[in-house]
Amino acid sequence: MSGYKYAKRTKKGEAVFRRDTNESLEFIIDYLKTNNIDHTYKKFDPMVVVTNKKNKDYMYYWTTGRWSPRHRSNRIHYRSNGIKNFVDKYLNRCYGDREELKDEASS
Questions:
Q1: Which residues, listed in sequence order, are joined to residue 66 by a DSSP beta bridge?
Q2: What's the 3-state SS for the chain?
């Protein structure tokens, strides 16, 4: 299943699978600094707030590669294969094209 492992079951009894990026926080911060990408983080938080060229904030969870636009209700999360994949494919794309993002995130 391409790196996905069983994590738990939902209340409905459905299996939940997870794929870890195997990237450390130090690696993520170094990558963002090297590529001059604005970001903020807290040392013990599994999330880095990354800002794109249009000053739109995204929450990137470095342990799993999941991300979402930063707004009040963060119910929808997309998946990337790591920080490089997130930056290359998603960070500086036009956020208005949501359907295309959903299609790519699910593949």
A1: 61, 79
A2: CCCCEEEEECCCCCEEEECCCCCCHHHHHHHHHHCCCCEEECCCCCEEEEECCCCCEEEEECCCCEEEECCCCCCCCEECCCHHHHHHHHHCCCCCCHHHHHHHHHC
Question: What's the residue count for the chain?
Answer: 107
What's the pTM? 0.71
Nearest Cα neighbor of 65 from 29, 36, 35, 28 is 28
What are the pLDDT digits (tens) for 16-57? 887 888 888 899 899 999 989 899 888 777 889 999 888 888
